[in-house]
Amino acid sequence: MAPMTSTTGTTGTPPSSGLAPEIAARLKRSADGLLPAIAQQYDTGEVLMLGWMDDEALHRTLTTGRCTYWSRSRQEYWVKGDTSGHFQWVKSVALDCDADTVLVKVDQVGAACHTGDRTCFDADVLHRDGAGSGVPSSDQ
């Protein structure tokens, strides 16, 4: 099932989604019908990953208590943890001020990144306060 797009690419309610109409009407989606979804550890504030949701993925996330994403490469829904065992248990879901991004606060079990790292932002730090120009050097 492909993500549903609206005629304008920014708002509208895809007909096949179970998402509440009052929520769907507020969303500003990309041209392909998706919203970026930032997963954050609920108790530490650690940013874990970025995934993509269409209306149905958001609906499933809100109603099941587990993060469901839309895979742009595989063109299918995936529930975090179904194959890896690294579950994301939903604590809260918030829409940003522009209504074009969701923040999902989760209790992450295991690694959030497909590489096995705790977060998707562990491996390639471009700048760290006091570390100089931000240009990577061979000794970092």
In short:
The protein has helices at 21-24, 55-64; strands at residues 35-41, 47-53, 68-71, 76-79, 88-95, 102-108.
Note the topology.
Elements (H helix, E strand, L loop, with lengths): L20 H4 L10 E7 L5 E7 L1 H10 L3 E4 L4 E4 L8 E8 L6 E7 L32
Parallel strand pairs: 1-6
Antiparallel strand pairs: 1-2, 3-4, 5-6
Structure notes:
It is a single chain. The chain has 140 residues and is mainly beta. It is built from 2 helices and 6 strands; from the N terminus they run H-E-E-H-E-E-E-E. The chain has helices spanning 21-24, 55-64; strands at 35-41, 47-53, 68-71, 76-79, 88-95, 102-108. Strand 3 and strand 4 (76-79) form a beta hairpin. The longest helix has 10 residues, at 55-64.
Please give the share of residues in helix.
10-25%
For the biggest sheet, the summary is: 4 strands, mixed
Tally of individual helices: 2
Average pLDDT for all residues: 86
The structural class is mainly beta
Q: Strand portion, in percent?
A: 25-35%
What is the CA-atom radius of gyration, in angstroms? 17 Å
Please report the total strand number as a whole number. 6
Q: Low-confidence stretches at least 5 residues in length (pLDDT < 50)?
A: 4-15
Distance between the termini: 44 Å
| Secondary-structure element order, N to C | HEEHEEEE
Largest sheet, spatial ordering of strands? 2-1-6-5
What general form does the structure show?
Answer: globular
